[in-house]
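Board work, copied verbatim: RNA polymerase sigma factor SigD
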Amino acid sequence: MTQESIDIAELIRQIRSGQPAAAEQLFRYCEPEIRAEIRYRLRSTAVRRVVDSQDICQSVMFSFFLRIGAGQYEIEQPQELLRLLLKIARNKTHDAYRFQLADRRDVRRVRSLDDAKELEERQGQENVIADKMEMSELLEELERKLSTQEFEIASLRRQGYRWDEIGAKLGDSPETLRKRFHRAIEKIGRTLTPRF
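↓ predict structure ↓
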């Protein structure tokens, strides 16, 4: 991210209010850095045959937008955003290795004739998922899976409330609420984020 003029806090506010142009702008802004990090870490030629940097980058942004929409992150500066996205990218790349090298699907045993067909089918499925699941639909699905209190926290976070204000409103420790909410979003997010 070479441009420092982008207003991250405003883009995140727009994303939370359901403006897809803001999500697209943020994606275009961050994509080169994320893909460079993923390519650096994606060294196994066997894994690269079935997962490339674009697959993982899309998963990173999918996961990020899901959590931003739910009010999980507080980010104001481009450097904070980059650190967070690169951390997610490292974790997703590690997950891709673990998933693809699991005993039953070990990509090192994939025959080269099957590679192109399998990759084409998987990319087609991902495109269908991306086409069908707009961010608003994804957030609705996330909200359906939240408990009543978690839903209330998500609503307050999207309205811009800080954790200390949420704690005062709900009569609980801000740190306890933050941790509980974070765990819930992570758990639900894993079920909504595409697997490799």
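The CA atoms of residues 60 and 89 lie 6 Å apart.
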